[in-house]
Structures are given as C-alpha cells and as structure tokens.
Automatic annotation (TrEMBL):
The name this protein goes by in its record: AB hydrolase-1 domain-containing protein
Region (Disordered): 47-74
Pfam families associated with the record: Abhydrolase_1
Ranges of residues in domain AB hydrolase-1: 77-309
Native species: Urochloa decumbens
Length: 333
C-alpha cells in the first residue's frame, strides 16, 4: 500500500525546486558526519555532490574554523531555517520557503538523525548539532546570516549564535528555550500531562501522534488514522538516536547560564503555545536584554508557523527587512 506521506514528497520537492532550491549533502568532517540541505541553486558547489575540501582537515586538526565567506555585492542576505523535533527541515518550513526565497538566499538543513543527516559521533548535545551545522554552512560559503529556529531547532540556534556570532548575525526563535533545564522540563511535562519528553515527541502509535498534534496546535485538527500511521513510518526514523538527543537536551539548573548574545533577536511566538508557553518567552526576553523583541501571534499554538503561516511570514519578513536594511538598502517584501 502506498504511504500517503511519502507520496506527497515529490510534490513538496517540486514546489521547493520551483522556489529555486536544490538538495545537497555536505561532508562536515571527512569522518562520516554529513548534513543534507536544500540550498539556493546558484550556491550549490559545482561538480561536487558532497563537499570535501581543506576545511575538513582543519576541523580534524582542531584548528580554528574558517571565517564566513565575505558577502559579494550582488549576494542576497542568507536565511537559515532550522527545524524542530517532529519533522525534517523542508516539511517543517514548507510554508516559509517560497515566501522568503524571492528575496533571500534560503538554506534548509536537516539536523543530525533527521532526513539524510547522520554522524558516527556519540555526542547528542545541542552544542554538537550547532557545531556541525556551523561547519556545514561555512563549507557552503555562507557568510553572516539570519538563523530562524523552531523548538528543538531554536535551542540549536541559540548555541550556534553564542559560539559563532560572526556567522549568526540575526536570530529568530519560535517555541523554544535557551536551555532545557530540569525545572523547565519538569514544569512543561507536568503541564502537558506526560511522563517524559520521549513519550510526547517520539510517539509510537496513532494515539500518541494525535496527542502530540493536539498539544502542539491551537485549532483541533482531524486526519484519518492511515495518515497518522504513514507519518509515523516516514518522519520518526532513527528512534534510538533521537531518544538520545532528548536525553542530551536536559541540563541541571545549576549548570544553566544565560548567554550574552550580541545579535538582534526576535522571539516569534504562538500566543497559545502549550509546550513552551508565552510566559517562558517573556522571561527569556528579559534575560536576553534590550536587543530582543517578543511578538506573539493570536490563535496559534506551538506550530505557529504552520497554523498561521501568512501572519508568521509577514512578521518574519518585516524583521528580516529591518535588520538587513543597512546591508541591503532596498529590502523588498
């Protein structure tokens, strides 16, 4: 029987290709760590299905990473879209790619153990994800860019912004936290009514997936059970590694620190987010300081970018246009 979710991929890929993106795989370290991307078609390295160059040896020798490539005068600002835990990149950002690709160079990676990305490393921390993603972006020649992170991808994006401020110039985060501390984890799980993050984010049954969607959305959605089963089969692969990613997320309260981030930051939130609620976002805004702005979108939950994509895209484009104005005097909407 045809898997309905898998059958929709060619259409999604067609639409993304029509927006000007192409699939590409980056060899991060020459030792088996690879990250799959959708990248602007004119930025795909020529005659190289997988990037392998001197940067791999530099990483292996633990030398400082390559600096971002200097932006050319005709380059458009780069925007990197970092997905969450329940879907790979292009599925997560399917309503944003076309809206942004008209005026920005859009990069959509799959984090490790999502899509075609993988690594032999046993490190499952958000910091390792951030280092691998930063290395891959540098190898693609991405200069200072805007990073948009959702949920788990937001945590990875915060780590990348802290470690690589020369690469991450602007930051947009939705439905996430600086770090998943003991207290935040326990409070969130208690509020949702589940015993563990894995129970919520790695459902094994149609019932479990329905529960996840119910919690993650403001509007109640209905899909046939077959579609839920097909989604489980296609999107929840690498279960062992993903369970380890969840274990690697939680840090003790005493070890958690608030980074001093130089970037302008937009916290773009669903007003009815039941996983990381708006109060957490308000606290995070105060912690991050005056360069951070919080905007909420009504009638939207954790999946704000999918529930209200038009409003989300407009707010996102307004922020990107404002922060890139100094480098691109005539930003278009």
């Amino acid at each position: 029987m045809v898997n309905l979710v898998e059958a929709q991929k060619p259409l999604l890929h067609f639409l993304v290709r029509r927006a000007g993106l192409r699939q590409h795989t980056v060899d991060v370290d020459g030792a088996g760590t690879v990250i799959t991307f959708w990248v602007p078609k004119d930025k795909v390295p020529k005659d190289k299905p997988t990037v392998r160059d001197a940067a791999a040896e530099a990483t292996a020798d633990k030398k400082p990473p390559l600096p971002p490539a200097p932006a050319k005068k005709n380059d458009r600002p780069a925007v990197v879209l970092v997905h969450g835990f329940a879907a790979e990149g292009i599925v997560t950002w399917q309503f944003q790619v076309g809206a942004l690709a008209k005026h920005y160079d859009v990069y959509v990676p799959d984090l490790l153990y999502f899509g075609g990305s993988t690594s032999p490393s046993t490190d499952r921390s958000p910091g390792f994800q951030a280092e691998c993603l930063a290395a891959a972006l540098r190898k693609l020649g991405v200069g200072p860019c805007a990073v948009v992170g959702f949920s788990y991808g937001g945590m990875v994006s915060f780590k990348m912004a802290e470690a690589h401020p020369d690469l991450v110039r602007w930051l947009v985060v939705s439905g996430s936290v600086l770090a998943m501390t003991d207290s935040i984890s326990e409070a969130s799980l208690e509020r949702i009514g589940v015993a563990s993050s894995a129970e919520l984010l790695l459902p094994e049954s149609v019932k479990g997936l329905k529960a996840l969607l119910s919690i993650a959305t403001h509007r109640k959605l209905w899909f046939p059970d077959r579609l839920h089963r097909d989604y489980l089969e296609v999107m929840f692969t690498n279960r062992k590694e993903r369970a380890e990613l969840l274990e690697g997320l939680v840090v003790s309260n005493k070890d958690a620190t608030v980074p001093v981030l130089p970037q302008k930051i937009l916290l773009l939130w669903g007003e009815n987010d039941n996983i990381f609620n708006i109060e957490l976002a308000k606290t995070m805004k105060e912690q991050l300081g005056e360069k951070t702005v919080l905007q909420s979108i009504s009638k939207a939950g954790h999946l704000v970018h999918l529930e209200r994509p038009c409003v989300y895209n407009q707010r996102l484009k307004e922020f990107l246009a404002s922060v890139t104005a100094t480098e691109n005097p005539n930003p278009k909407q």
